[in-house]
Amino acid sequence: MSGHDLIIVGAGIVGAACADYATMQGMRIAIVEPGVVGGGATAAAMGHLVAMDDDPAELALAHYSLGLWEAFANLPQAEFSRCGTLWVASNDEEFARIPEKIARLAASGVAAERVDARELYRLEPSLAPGLAGGMRVANEAVVFPPAVARHWVDRAITRGATYHADAVFRLDDRGVLLHGGQRLHGPVLLATGGALPSLLPGLPVRLRKGHLVITDRYPGVIRHQLLELGYADSAHGGDAASVAFNVQPRPTGQILIGSSREYDAVDTGVSMEMIRRMLERSFHFLPRLRELDAIRLWTGFRPVSVDGLPYLGRAPGRDDVWVAAAHEGLGVTTSLGSARVVVDQILGRAPAIDPTPYDPSRVQP
Amino acid sequence: MVDACDIVVVGAGPAGLAAAEAAASHGKRVVLIDSQPRAGGQVWRHDALHGQPRVAMDAIRAAAGNANVTYLEGTQVVAVEPERLLLQDARRGFHLAYGALVLATGARELLLPFPGWTLPGVTGAGGLQALAKQGWPLRGKRVLIAGSGPLLFAAAATAQRHGAHVVGIHEQAGASAVHRFAAGLWRWPGKLAQAARLRLELARVPYRTGSIVTTAEGDHGVSGAHVRGGQGDERIECDLLAVGYGLLPQVELAQLLGCALEPEGAHARVQVGPWQATSQPRVFAAGEACGIGGIDCARVEGHIAGLAAAGAAVPRALVQRRDRARAFAASLRQHFALRDDVRGLANDDTTICRCEDVSLGAVRTHTDAREAKLATRCGMGACQGRICGGALAELGHGPRGGMRPPLFPTRLATLGEPVLSSVSDTRGYTP
Amino acid sequence: MKMSTVRLTINGLRVHVPAGISVATAIALVGQPFRHSVTGEPRAPLCGMGVCFECRVRIDGVAQQRACQRVVNPGMRVETDG
Q1: Is B90 exposed, middle or buried (0-12, 13-18, 19+ CB in 10 A)?
Q2: In CATH, what is the architecture of A83-140+206-304?
Q3: What distance in Å separates the CA atoms of residue B8 and residue B29, rounded to the nearest whole number?
């Protein structure tokens, strides 16, 4: 029995991107996924393609990836909508810090502009009065991640990838043994997100629970993905539980409302208390939301590495085991860049961006 | 402070009214809630022209008029939290804490897709009856009624009382099954008398068995239907087409509470013990939610559930009456079992998810219900899969998944800023 | 039954309808269309009991309200997207 050039475990947005890119490079791959393609954190995600400026390595990967996303701007099932991102400043202090943010983004090639209060309300008339202004990143977009993952897996399969609807029972130096008894030979790339430690206990992943609310269709209430500039404090703070204003206009006219972050919450159930906190924050910025109907609430788990950067590269101490996992809340944005950074290294090529910051060997056993 | 009561009864149909009355008569403080503007449920729905039957008015007065009962109309349960419910009415959202809960959430119609079923003027059979009672203009309209079960007669009679010209009742079950059902009705004399009354009232309406509406036609609204039966295919002109294939238990609230369900055909019902207790402590269920059983069943189960929730003794006679009523339900299910061909009417182009306009062909390519939802948006709309989910389960595409809040589309203000107190300032029932 | 009537507007038309009827019925009585589906097909009430959401309208400025679940009120402003 002949082996595979690469066995990709996990068909979330990251594994799917890896499968697409690897088969584009002519690799003969196997995809192993016991569940629905894009059915984990990918399906729970907002699908916002966004550059965050607070870490240079994260920004470099995001910017690289955002360029690659342009190839899918016209893919119908991607529901790609270039709504842009509008970061909202609550006060003069936040407004005054915008030029530094614009400079940091510009250094990585991301174009952003400061908008004053008047322009802010012209762009988004439904925002609450009294805001200081904002920062607009006009080129950013939103997508529907699970459909994109499905598209990439389908493309990989048309290029010869084999698909195994099964779970890995054991990972060893020659490949994987599946629960169903099948053995696949070849190098292994683990793109299993939050489930990574079950196969690779040496790489810690913490789960950070999030809640989302989606409304019925109310076209035109907002036009941009709206976030508070204080979002990064929630996203990167160490608080056990935090919420931030983060709402998105879907191409359907629905409004997707986030966001919450909770470490060490284990159950998948919706916490009405977190929903309440999240919505209170949203009403503060967008009072009109109060009268709209929510039609679904759900939760998901962001997989977080030791330092917030994804693990991309060779697993520590392993020859033929590779990792592309732990993207926290940016897996959709950085999926395409992540796939290239890892697969280029597997092929012995130098990636287009410096892979060192994402190297899993930074984790000391 | 959150409003609190001893017992919350969800649903003010025959089961819920009986439960509220029974619990209140044992001194319990009961809050009875219903999403409809008026009490009575579907079967006793208030008729804008003809009011409500005496028996319904008596039951409503006995429950909602009881001093121990606070009745909240137009109020929906939208989410469940430990020991309390999140509710909303037309104006506000609020919490209600309870000691025990009785689920009397009733049934909805099983609506199966066929080409043309999305045209304006095509409704459910129970749907037509409900709309007629709301005052829907039917005078002089040609109405064709089809599907399965005794509800077709009730819908036809209501339509006729509102001035419609019922051009035919088409029952999918074969003549022999229907005759066997009718022949067994002597065991439930009340049912027999009711059937005889309806048959007399509808004496001039053609009744066909083994007959199925295969297609609805029309430009901006329905103007005719193709019917397939023993005499081959024929086209029947109509202004309204009402098609319903029986009823489905509404189990969503029970699901949200974590109550165990059991299969009812391709669907689900709430599992209950002899005293209507569900698998969750202090949660009881009664009536159609526990399996389609009809009004007599609902009333006696509601009575039992109300007593059990109040911690009162349940007389053995009630349990016997319940078992007898359940036997009628079994007979109904057996004789009006759906023929295979009603599951094959929709083609690949037929819309299955009416909220998101997803065709059956798009869904059919997926083996997993969740995968189909992610790929096609089927079930992602405002009805939260209530219509397409029931249809897909009946068509053999697997059961619906778990239920997540909100139970119904809910104002964000309800979820984000529920008011502290509401029940105490709600106007009580006025007879 | 009281034969009183209620005045409201439906799609900008001032109409009188019998008191106690549902908003859905009022729309049908005055012959106004209901909603269009997401692909633009005309739709109308299906279930009559608040579960199918085909009768959604805007009432007093608030969109996505089920017309079969609401009784007409004096001065109500109803808009369908038909």
Answers
A1: middle
A2: 2-Layer Sandwich (3.30)
A3: 9
Interchain pair C64, A218: CB under 8 A: yes
Q: B116-142 burial string, b = 16+ CB within 10 Å, else e?
A: bbbbbbbbbbbbbbbbbbbbbbbeebb
Query: How is B59-90 classified by DSSP, letter by letter?
Result: HHHHHHTSTTEEEETT-EEEEEETTEEEEE-S
CATH number of this structure's domain C5-79: 3.10.20.30
> How many residues belong to chain A?
365
What pLDDT digit, counting tens, does each position of A90-110 carry?
999 999 999 999 999 999 999
Side chain identity at residue A110, one-letter code: V
> What pLDDT does residue A173 have?
83
Question: What DSSP character marks residue B223?
Answer: -
Per the prediction, chain B carries an average pLDDT of 93
A291 and C38 within 8 Å at the Cβ level: the answer is no
Q: Please indicate whether, in this complex, the C-beta atoms of C62 and A291 are within 8 angstroms of each other.
A: yes
Domain end among B211, B245, B279? B245
Q: Calculate ∠ Cα B110-B116-B122, nearest 5°.
A: 55
Q: Given the DSSP bridges, would you call strands A225-228 and A85-89 parallel, antiparallel or unpaired?
A: parallel
Q: State how far the Cα of B392 lies from the Cα of B398, in Å rounded to an integer.
A: 7
Distance from CA of B23 to the nearest CA of A (A): 30
Q: List subunits contacting chain B, requiring 3 or more Cβ pairs under 8 Å.
A: A, C
CA distance B159 to B394: 28
Q: Report helix angle A56-69 to A331-346, nearest 10.
A: 90
Residue of higher predicted confidence among B329 and B339: B339
